[in-house]
Structures are given as C-alpha cells and as structure tokens.
Please model this.
Amino acid sequence: MTRYKVNAEELTAALAELPGWEVKDGKLHKTYKFGSFAQAIGWMVSIAIHADKMDHHPEWANVYNRIRVDLVTHDLGNAISSWDIELAKKMDALAA
Model:
C-alpha cells in the first residue's frame, strides 16, 4: 500500500468506519481498555509486530489495562496518512 497524506474527505470517511477514533492535536487518537494488564500488553506486542513489518510505529502509552494511541506519519510532515488509517483498522481488529 502506498503511503500518502489523506485529505479531509478521506479522513471523514475513515473516521466513520473507525469507532472511538478521533482527531486530537492533528493525530488519529483512541484509548483502548482491556480486561487486564496482561491483555493490554499482549495486544501491544501483537500490534508491535504488525507495525514493525509496516515500518510504521505508533505513539502510545500504557497504564494498567488502558492504552492511549496516537497515529501520525512523521515522514509526511506529521500528517495523517493512509498508513495511519490502515494501522488503526488493524488495532481495532485485534482488540475485538
């Protein structure tokens, strides 16, 4: 998949398909809550493997069973890109 900055229409359409995601401080943002610390960390490891294969890494923080995620593409001028949307979809799929 080609990495490109998304326009306002593409972003609006993507957000309609990504429950709980919003734009905050110019980044795609969501907070996940899991049943336990172990579940949260297990999810992070699964996402880390996928993100590393994409060479596209999230900004995230973990506190117990909560993970705060911000996605932005640094090498495209800190813009939201097609890869941020793809990674957000993967995150949601693995959190389900």
User: Anything to note?
Assistant: The two ends are 24 Å apart (CA to CA). The chain has one domain: 8-95.
